[in-house]
Amino acid sequence: MYTLNNPILTGFNPDPSMCRQGEDYYIATSTFEWFPGVRIYHSRDLKNWSLVSTPLDRVSMLDMKGNPDSGGIWAPCLSYADGQFWLLYTDVKIVDSPWKNGRNFLVTAPSIEGPWSEPIPMGNGGFDPSLYHEDDGRKFYIYRPWGPRHHSNPHNTIVMQEYFPQTQRLSPERKTLFTGTPLSYTEGAHIYRKDGWYYLLVAEGGTSYEHAVVVLRAKTLEGPYELHPDVTMMTSWHLPENPLQKSGHGSLLETHTGEWYMAYLTSRPQRLPGIPLLASGGRGYCVLGRETGIARITWRDGWPYVEGGKHAQLTVPGPQMTESHAIAQPTWRDDFDADTLDPELQTLRIPFDSTLGSLSARPGFLRLHGHDSLNSTFTQSTVARRWQHFAFRAETRMEFAPQHFQQSAGITCYYNTKNWSYCFVDYEEGLGRTLKVIQLNHNVPSWPLHEQPILVPENAQSVWLRVDVDRLVYRYSYSFDGEAWQTVPIVYEAWKLSDDYIGGRGFFTGAFVGLHCEDISGDGCYADFDYFSYAPVAE
After folding, report:
1. Distance (Å, rounded) from C-alpha 377 to C-alpha 47?
2. Is the pTM of the predicted complex or chain greater than 0.90?
3. Which family does it belong to (predicted)?
4. What amino acid positions are annotated as catalytic residues?
5. 332-536 architecture in CATH?
């Protein structure tokens, strides 16, 4: 038996939904405002996972232009039945309001790679939908409703409707399955069947440090459901020193070898020196966002338990199956030689198409056309990837010839439209090209090099840009020849690109590093990027 190491999916990969097709295992995770929507990972041993599908890759499936920060794709549910994959998802359009508003859809595919069908509307009155496939072929749609008569909390009802795939309709009859425990924020419901019992698995406690998994069971699908003897099946709230926190939002699975596991979301907080662990109710700052962990499940007296204790654990016994060849994790690099972007790269809200840029206009380069600023929720030319390590270096070489002060291009460390930093080249009348940095911190800007920008030599055809992240801080550097590097004399706080620092009602994603080009002059500009690399630093 080999060991599974948590988290199994590092960096921003929350709300895992796990399913199996024969001896192949899949996990779907939330992507929120990042396009394409939903990321699906594959494994043959529950240890080594690779990205195999990003199914919501057409505007007809996912139209997020204008979506708010932390809107978009919430908690997809992936299942396999009747010879095809079924994927439910919510596209959230309103976040910062007394009640949220989203649209639920269903798509199907004969294989995980697709082709995925056009979306089937499943109603707008709830979120975190899932689909239970009964043995007799019937389908049941489970979700948490929301609306004007109740705010996000304490309304915690889980509702079920029958779904008729032949007519693509839901039954108007709704059955309430559960109204929550005092932990509140009941959501993320899934139903499973084992040994004559129906098990209802839900997330509670919110998605921060008090997060938990709660399980119930019943002899019939409609209930009544009784609570687990321990109420919470998983949580790390009782262990503030545990390295894996915020554990909750689980998804159960039985392996082809008859063993049970649960995927769940978790985070790894970094603590600030000199600040007490529980200061202000927090336990640190999770710059890598909400990640995916896995737990081994044992059954006692007809109830599931997390093996080794209900808290998230760094190592877990693996299943009784052959361990796959380990998937190498070398330094990542995209030289932009392919016809499409590397799957690790995503855009904000809209697809990468001829509006945003091109991979063919100049072969071997990514061309980004200048559009909106980094604080826009509409047409923004940003191509980025997740932070997956506490320490790493990201680098690019750029060719850019701005002609106006409203044109810029460079490298960014980004959380959302109100929290980011940007190291860029622009144009100053009387000076020519200059290099600057800007930060938006809770929507408050600062320009430390505004009065004394760094001049770009007239004969410099290229500008190399780099960011070095070292746990709690990061720094930008630049070079005009690719060899002599200079550090920008500004130290940025990495922990300010975390869910915990952002707070409010839109703190569900994670830090990204990416390439950006903007032009609000209306004159038109573009920047060419030769490569983009990301190299973890040994800690």
Report:
1. 36
2. yes
3. Belongs to the glycosyl hydrolase 43 family.
4. 15, 187
5. Sandwich (2.60)
